[in-house]
Amino acid sequence: MKLPKDRKIKLQSAIAEIENLYPEDGLILSYADFLKVRHILLHYKFNPVVLYNLCKITNDLWSSPKRINRIKLLFFIKKYLNKFPTDKYGGLIAKVARPAIDLPSDTCKLLFQLFKKTYLESQYLPKSQVEDARSFANNILIDIGLSHEEEQWLCANAFKNNNFLNRVLRYPICSSVISRWAKDNYSNDALRERRSELLSWIVNEDLQHEVSIQTLIDDFEFFYIKDTSAKQEYEHEHISSMIIKHELGEYVSLSNHDNILDPEEDGTYDFSYSGLQISRRSYPFPKDESKDYWPLRMPDFNQLRIDFYNNLTVHQEFTMIWAIAYCKLDNSIKCELLKKYFSNKTFKSLYRVGVKTNNLYLLQWMLEVDE
Asked: What is the pTM of this model?
């Protein structure tokens, strides 16, 4: 009996998953080879040569008139790269400031070229696939170290796209190029919401650096003007419609507002929802308890100002804690720097940093302090 193609693929996939073999270097040497093995590729162990060949094929054929599925190639590169052995990270993968993947420079260069192609040569993609392609390429580059020239390109284009900016601020290894860029852009309004990440690049080269109180005040006042203006615009456009909806019994879901007093993974607080975008901050937002905005919850900006100026030193400590968390220094050095900011008020943030950066030095020291 000759099996239908879908059943044959199903069996091959099951066998490949059980065997979990290390693929030969020549598994994929052409686009035709990719098509033959794509349904079992992700059941193989990671082989850097296979990844290189897959990246080279995609780059070489990107502008080709041949009929190829570029989005599928990017998807499989992303998925296959995710199979990189986690033990090379030194155990668990850190959620904040995790190290770069140890790949050959030729492969890293090809990955960066693909990242650029999704922006500079997107005409070769169907319009409906452009954003997905950029998302895949951005994900591919997250843990990749680059050459100085490539770092310079990212810095030169950092403000053109949020993905570019993320790849600069969250670059996985020390870089004198990015540290210099961070110093040059220290007062750039576009980076005030990401103060800790920006600071981390300065701490990389100056262990004694500490954000000034005046810088935090400048950040706060910039946010205050921006956010109160956004609130006024929101009130003008939406409050009347919300009242009408309430009277008709059409309640707005509050499910995405419930974490307002709990910091995000990066230690910042978010108070935004559809129609109102509020700046992310490293301190919680007091809520306006009046019924004027019901069922939505609005920040109390007057109380926010009072709380901020009454806790300037604490805000400085929180900002530095996350700056040190993001920097690329060894965890033992981070631990020594973070000891300065240990207190009852900062315990939760230090604990989060210890867990998210796999910093045993810090967590063990915090435990010993109690003894």
From this structure: 0.86
